[in-house]
Amino acid sequence: MDFLLGLLSRFTGNEELARLLFIAAIGLSTVLTAVALLLLVLGLQDPVQRRLALIKRGYAGTGAGQEAPGNLQLLLERIGQRFASTDQAHTSATQTLLTHAGYRSASAVQMYWAVRLMLPLLLVGVALLLLPMVKVSLAIGLLGVTLMAGIGWLIPAIYVGKRKQARQGRLRAAFPDALDLMVVCVESGLALPTTIERVAEEMSVSQVELAEELALVNAQIRAGITSTEALKQLAVRTGLEDIQGLVSLLAQSIRFGTSVADTLRIYADEFRDRRTQAAEEMGAKIGTKLIFPLIFCLWPSFFLVAIGPAMIGVFRAFGNM
Which of 44-58, 118-132, 168-182, 275-289 is the least confident region? Predict the structure, then answer.
């Protein structure tokens, strides 16, 4: 409190005026916060408003395993709808990023922007509360508040990016097994939609994420979407170049009437070669990556053991002189 009063006194040059402004700011912020929370709670608890929000969200309430979203989720969706970007290209890029990270709900974009907007405000509020406890200068205080706001803005993006990389890594690791199973199923006489369904069932325990994606492809095919279009949407949802290459080969095979089994087998062989080359590339980089641990960790110890006794002897000799 004293720190904030000191800041206001520096700006106004009058201690009494600064105290009055400080009290007025606290009172106004308290009233506005109470009114905002009251309006939000009343709006969310009102059955009519809640029902309208659920209908807009696409929740019917009749599904057996479908659960109604909580008040916090609805609140984040409303905030995201208010402040989300209206640029279609930017929204599409954000939707693609969230889809690659595994967030496929209709309100994922709104909740993402709501979190990115609310988290900096929360961290700034925490920083302002902690500033009076730490005696720092005005410049350092403003720098700390700005830094907290930047961290709050970047944390959701970094988290989603890391989640996207982890999910794509798991899908990429599970893709070879799925490809081998597809080759076996197609060569045994199963059609492509039946093959995808069978592979999804077989991988539902070991590789849940890839099994869900393949099951979604099968559901789209059953709904009337062509196999080529469903596979293209699979490549868009996963964002993997390996699946994009498979989709292109299967689309050409279906278009020109060639054997799907031969296409899958050729791509499986190419994918094994590509995976071997990637492993060899990673192995070749080990020597370069080991330079830094050797320089900063092992070589100082080696020089200390090898040259240390000689240096001690030199110091003793010069000391006796």
Answer: 44-58
pTM > 0.90: yes or no? no
DSSP letters spanning 98-151: HHHHT--STTHHHHHHHHHHHHHHHHHHHHHHHGGGS---HHHHHHHHHHHHHH
What gap in Å lies between CA 129 and CA 254, rounded to an integer? 64
List helix spans (H) across the chain: 2-12, 15-45, 47-57, 71-83, 88-101, 108-130, 138-187, 192-202, 208-222, 227-238, 241-256, 260-284, 286-289, 291-293, 299-320
Judge whether 163 and 102 are in contact, CB under 8 Å: yes
- Nearest-CA neighbor of 246 among 215, 268, 273? 268
Q: Please tell me the distance from the alpha carbon of residue 85 to that of residue 114, in angstroms, as a whole number.
A: 11
Q: 295: helix, coil or strand?
A: helix
Per-residue pLDDT reduced to its tens digit, 118-165: 888 888 877 777 776 677 676 787 788 888 889 988 999 999 999 999
The residue behind tokens 């699979």 is 234
Euclidean distance between CA atoms 53 and 292, whole angstroms: 56
pLDDT of the residue at 66:
47
- 71-83 vs 47-57: helix crossing angle, rounded to 10: 60
